[in-house]
Amino acid sequence: MEPKARIVLIADDEPDILEILKFNLENEGYKVVTAKNGDEALEKARLHKPDLIILDVMMPNKTGVEVCAILRRQASFNETLIIFLTAVNDEGTHIKGLETGADDYISKPISPKVLISRVNALFRRVDKTELRILTIENLVIDPERFIVKVDEKEIILAKKEFELLYLLALKPGRVFLRHEILNAVWGKEVIVGDRTIDVHIRKIRQKIGIDCITTVKGVGYKFEL
Question: Which letter, b or e, does each residue of 63-84 get, where b requires 16 or more Cβ atoms within 10 Å of its Cβ?
Fold first, then answer.
């Protein structure tokens, strides 16, 4: 019995881009659903529950960043992979998109071969991840349900915040270098700055309310209670 084809939702207001990406992804074995604007992307996402969503940043009705933010607030889309497509090539836009919860960022004009490579790489990264519940004193981290609890109280973290906390908590006391964190959480192909890590660390500390992530000045971060 062949494994079920993964579903990819592509949302872009340019018909030519939708057509060429759909053609190439289907040739790769993916089941593809398309949307022409932000509202339709939300509707199709809720209907089809895709494994991956590819969002154009500048779309009518709602931008890709707005769509991503809405989806990431829903538990059923915590594990859904999201890639942004954009003709806007500035660091501020990239950081905003990634902080919203995107897994990757690809600039236009798009090379179908590059896109396929990045899509396949994201799925390989997900497939290789061994998930186990971590219980450290009064902190519980459940990666299968994307749940964090402190003293039995559930804490809501954004997807990247959760992945960063889980990475550090897997090996308490180990210092993770900044480039290790970037590669593990955002992937080698995604270009983000140190500020992105700092922002996520700050948000994690604020949300969980316990002192468990230590900054090792000039080096990186480590988890310890």
Answer: bbbbbbbbbbeeeebbebbbbb
